[in-house]
Amino acid sequence: MPDFRPVLNLRLKLWRAAVLLSMGILVGGLYFFQVVHADTYIRLASNNRLRLIRFPPVRGEIYDRNGALLAVNVTTFDIMGYPMDIEKNDMPERLAELLSAHGIPYTAEDLSRSIKRQSWAPYRVVRLVGNITLAQMADLVADPEFPRELFPLPVWRRTYPAGSLASNITGYVGEISENELRQFSEGNYAAGDQIGKNGIERQYEDVLRGTPGEESVEVDARGRKIRTIDTRPAGRGEDLHLTLDLGAQRLAADLMKGYRGAIVVMDAHTGEVLVLYSSPSYDNNPLAWGVSLREWNALVNDPEKPMLDRSISGQYPPASTFKALMGLAALEEKETTTALTAHCSGAFTVGNRTFRCWKRSGHGTVNLLRALQESCDVYFYQVGLKLGISRILKWCSLFGLGSPTGIDLPGESPGVTAGPDWKRARFKESWYQGDTVNYSIGQGFLLTTPLQIARLYAVIANGGKLVRPHLSSTAGVVARNLSLEKKNLDVIRKGLDYVVRRGTGRQAGSFGITVAGKTGTAQNAHGDDHALFAGYAPMDNPKYVAVALIEAGLHGSSVASPMVGEILSYLLVPEARGKAQ
Q1: Among 29, 27, 49, 48, which residue's Cα sits nearest to residue 37?
Q2: For 318, which DSSP code?
Q3: What does the alpha-carbon distance between residue 46 and residue 579 come to, in Å, rounded to a whole number?
Q4: Which residues on adjacent β-strands are paired with residue 155?
Q5: How far is the CA of 350 from the CAs of 124, 320, 344, 436, in angstroms?
Q6: How far apart are CA 325 and CA 449, in angstroms?
Q7: Catalytic residue among 278, 311, 320, 472
Q8: Helices (DSSP H) in 102-239: which residue ranges?
Q9: 3-state secondary structure of 51
Q10: Closest Cα partner for 129 from 140, 120, 144?
C-alpha cells in the first residue's frame, strides 16, 4: 500500500505558507494604509464630509460723468448642487418637471448639459439653474417636491438702467464660454462665471471683475449642511466712471429717432467722449441675462444691424467734411493761399472725364474761404491735383485717418486710406488723376468712421493737437502736437465759420451758440446719399467737437447740421439743457 504521508505533509506545508503569506500581505496592507499613508486617507475621509461652495465675484458698477448708473448689480438666485447628489434618483428629470410647474422653462437635457460642462470634481458644487428671482425662489423652496439635496445661492447679476441708450458703449456680460475658459485659464475663472462680452464690460474686464469667494462647509452622510468651517467672501471689482454724458446721449437718441447713423461729441482738448450714439440700437439687458439661439440669430441677422456701432465701426466716405483737411494741407504745402482763386463753371475735365460740382451752374471765381463756405467741388478738385495723391495720403496719415483712434472700446474700424499700391493690389489697375480728384472731395477709395472725423476737427479746434478719444475718466489725456502753422489753422477756422454764418451749414448756428463746421453729402452705392456735419463750438474758443452722420439722409445742410447745433447747445447752454430734459 502506497505511503501518501509525504505528499500530504508537502501540501500542508504549502497551505501553511499560503496562509502565512496572506496574513503577511494583510498586515503589510494595514500598515501601508493606516500608518504610512494615514494622513492621506484621513484627508480623503474628511473630504467626504467637506464641501466647497464657490461665490462668483461681485462686479464693479459703471457710471456716467454725472454719476448716473450705466451698469449695476442686482441679486438673483442660482440653484446649486453636487454632482454625486445630482446623479441619483433622476434629478434632472425631477427638477425639470418642478421648474415647468412653476413657469420656468428648463428641460432635463438643458440641465444635464449644464451639469456635465461644470462637473470636474464630485464634491465641487455646480449650478443647475440661474437667474431665479426672489419670488420664484421662494415658491420653489416652499414646494414639497423641491429636492432637498439642492440649495439656493444668492448671486449678483448685471442690469443696464440706460438699456439701448448706451448699449454700444457699456456692452454686456454673459456666461463664460469654453473657448474663453481656455483663453483666460490663468484668470481664476470657472464655468458659469460672467465675463464682459462687448463694450466697456469687455475692455475693462480686469478692472470690473473682482475676485471669487469660497465657503467650506461640513455635511452629514446625506449631504446636508452641518456647519460652516471657513469663508472667504467674494471681492468686489472697481467701479468705473466714464466721460459719457447720459443726458446728451439721450438727446442724441431723440435726434436720431427714425434714422440710421451716429452722433459723436468729444472734448476737443482732452479727447473725453461725451456722446457716442449709434442708431438703431439694441437692449443689452436680455443679452446679459440670457437669450435663446433664435433670439440671438434674429438680433445678429437684423438687416438694420443694431449691434453695429456705427460711431466707431461704420466706415463712410467723409465727403465734403474732408475739404477742411484738404485746404489745410494745401496751405501747409504752400499750394494755395487765401489770395489764389479758381474758376468754377460747374464742371471740371480731367483727361476724357468730366467731374461735376454739386452746384451745376457753378460758383464762379472763388478763393479758399469761399470754396469752404459754399463747398465748391471744382476748387478742391484743382487743389487735390496740385497736392497729388502721395501728399494727400501723408496728411491723412498725420491726422490719423486709416488707423484706429485708440478709443478704449473693442471693435474699432481703422477706415481706409487707399492709394496707388492698394488699388494695384486690389484691382490690378493703375492710379489715375480721376482717382485723386475723387479723393479731394472725400469720395472714391477714402473711408472714415464718425469718430475719426471728430478727431480731425478737434485738431482744427484745439490748435493742432491730435488727441486720443477715451471713455474712462482715468484714461488721461494723450495728445500729439502736429506742429501746424497757426495762421493756416486760422484760415481754415475762418472758412468753417463762414460755412455756418453764410454758407451751407446755417442751421447749425440757430441754437443760441456760435458754431463752426462743414457739411457733407456722401455718395452711397446702396441708396440715397449720406448726410454729414462736423463742427465745434463755441467758434472763438472751441470746447466741444461734434459729428452727425445720417445714412441715406440726403443733405448734411438740412438734416445733420441742426443735430450738431442742438446737441452742442445742450452741452454749452444751461437753459438749453433744461429744455431738453
Answers
A1: 29
A2: -
A3: 68
A4: 76
A5: 76, 20, 14, 10
A6: 15
A7: 320
A8: 108-118, 134-142, 167-170, 178-183, 199-203, 205-208
A9: strand
A10: 140
Q: Taking the CA of residue 195 as centre, how many other CA atoms within 13 Å lie in the half-sphere pointing to its CB?
A: 18
Identify the sign of the CA torsion 479, 494, 450, 538.
Answer: positive
Cell triple for 461: 479746434
What pLDDT, on the 0 to 100 scale, is given for residue 30? Answer: 72
Cα dist. 311→116, 318, 555 in Å? 41, 13, 19
Residues 6+ apart with CB under 8 A from 71: 59, 61, 62, 158, 159, 160, 170, 200, 201
Rounded Cα distance, 390 and 387, in Å: 8
Verify whether residue 361 is a known catalytic residue.
Answer: no
Which residue carries 501747409 as its cell? 332
Between CA 506 and CA 386 the distance in angstroms is: 30
* pLDDT exceeds 70 at position 269: yes
User: What's the rounded Cα separation, in Å, for the pair 551 and 566?
Assistant: 19
Q: Each residue of 484-536: pLDDT tens digit?
A: 999 999 999 999 999 999 998 999 999 999 999 999 998 887 788 899 999 99
Q: Which residues are CB-neighbours of 228 under 8 A, at least 6 positions away?
A: 215, 216, 217, 218
Coil, strand, or helix at residue 93? Answer: helix
Q: What DSSP designation does 27 have?
A: H
Residue range 154-181: mean pLDDT, rounded: 91
CA 317 to chain centre: 23
Q: Residue 247 corresponds to which cell in the numbers above?
A: 443726458
Q: Report how far residue 342's alpha carbon sits from residue 563's, in angstroms, rounded to the nearest whole number.
A: 32
pTM (two decimals): 0.83
SS3 percent helix, strand, coil of the chain, rounded to 5, is 40, 25, 35
Within 8 A by CB and 6+ apart from 22, the residues are none
Amino acid at 11: R
